[in-house]
Design brief:
It contains four helices and no strands. Helix 1 packs across helix 4, helix 2 runs antiparallel to helix 3 and helix 2 crosses helix 4. It starts with 15 loop residues before the first helix and ends with a helix.
Length: 103
């Protein structure tokens, strides 16, 4: 058993960014309230050619908070590197869908 105070991003037994990304897409409430509206906004920016990781960051921070609350992961596990990796991966994974007008 691991104490919460012992948990950091480096000693979690799973990839935190990948797990949060899965949470964003699979949690019905988060997807409907945060993820989908963010993608709709990003689609407009992609068409304008001005989409960056910073455009995804507010949604990613909300996802981290939602994940923390739901699964009891301490805030210290969500380092700047984790949040930036997550923003980058979300944008990379969705970029083709955004270009094709999927949202």
């Amino acid at each position: 058993m691991v104490k919460i105070v012992e948990v950091t991003e480096k000693n979690l037994p799973f990839d935190l960014a990948a797990d949060v990304k899965t949470h964003m897409v699979n949690d019905k409430d988060f997807y409907r309230q945060e993820y989908y509206p963010c993608m709709v906004g990003l689609q407009k920016k992609v068409k304008e050619g001005s989409c960056t990781n910073e455009d995804v960051k507010p949604m990613v921070l909300k996802a981290c908070k939602s994940y923390m609350t739901k699964y009891g992961i301490p805030q210290e596990a969500f380092t700047k590197e984790v949040t930036m990796q997550l923003a980058s991966e979300v944008l990379k994974d969705e970029l083709e869908n955004l270009r094709q007008g999927e949202y």
